[in-house]
């Protein structure tokens, strides 16, 4: 450092050290969260008012010494409380929806699990930084696709049928009497299946270019007993094999598209004249500084490793990113020829847009 450099602030250094240590601890603890999730340790703790390591090990048929160390880590992380008098560990009720309830839209276990494919893909993404080449969705570690479905499906289950579809102009009524619906970028099909279950008079088709996801989606539809009303096909968002849809849905995928203007232009032509396009995108403000939040931190990290590389791997490579915001999304829709665009609904994690031809 030279004499004209910014002076060293010891207090800021110590605060930064504390923050980074906390982040390193979170990374290391994430591995333990996966163990607790897979072995049902959180769920067993949620059933009790406190357990010793021996009691938890007995109830989960695991080894006490491993469980004891796991519990200590979880208590140090602040996820569990510990009573030194009884040597019992407790999962506070406020943490049950975060770690022990598989139906909760704020269950964090899927996000922790996402660390596995992200770390596995790090060498590929780091190399892409030096070349500028994209990394397609299909090129990632295979664990990514199940993690993605788990992260999103509970939020869709909580809001899609109850809040988002009724917020669209006239769409709920169409679905109740019988509509044709396309779910573009459907992944494992959770969103498509939720809609098909809620609206038995309507027909649904999910499209995704990733063949393994389509295979998983068709199997999920068979298990749900609705394969007669919903099907899944491998198709590019720019080349749907059908048209005349009353509703086209795009769940958390438009920002991943290389050419979102081209995709939305094609989707507009696939809609009926009075049809509706629903786009669900990550919650974001229009300015970077609006997104410097805990949620923005997660979305920017995912965008760096997944969304931006996916877009750069495709034609045009616009790379909107997961924090594009409403203004930029509106511009893309208008460039694609949609005459109407509005924010129809929102959650702390999503923005729901309605676009009409």
What is the first-to-last residue Cα distance?
59 Å
The main pleated sheet reads as: 7 strands, mixed
Q: Which term fits the overall shape?
A: globular
Oligomer: single chain
Q: In the CATH classification, which architecture of the largest domain applies?
A: 3-Layer(aba) Sandwich
Poorly predicted runs: none
CATH superfamily membership of the largest domain: Vaccinia Virus protein VP39
Number of domains: 2
| Count, helices | 14
Mean pLDDT: 96
**CATH C-level class of the largest domain:** Alpha Beta
The helix/strand order is: HHHHEEHHHHHEHEHEEHEHHEE
Radius of gyration, in Å, reads 23 Å
In the CATH scheme, what's the topology name of the largest domain?
A: Rossmann fold
Portion of residues in helices? 40-55%
Q: What is the strand tally?
A: 9
Trace the largest sheet across and list its strands.
5-4-3-6-7-9-8
Classify the beta-strand content into a percent band. 15-25%
Briefly, what is this?
With 357 residues, this protein is of the alpha/beta class. The chain has helices spanning 10-39, 41-46, 53-60, 64-77, 96-99, 109-113, 115-131, 143-164, 171-177, 190-198, 211-224, 260-270, 294-312, 325-335, and strands at residues 81-83, 88-90, 180-184, 203-208, 230-234, 245-251, 271-282, 340-346, 350-356. The protein has two domains: 13-104, Arc Repressor Mutant, subunit A; 114-356, Rossmann fold.
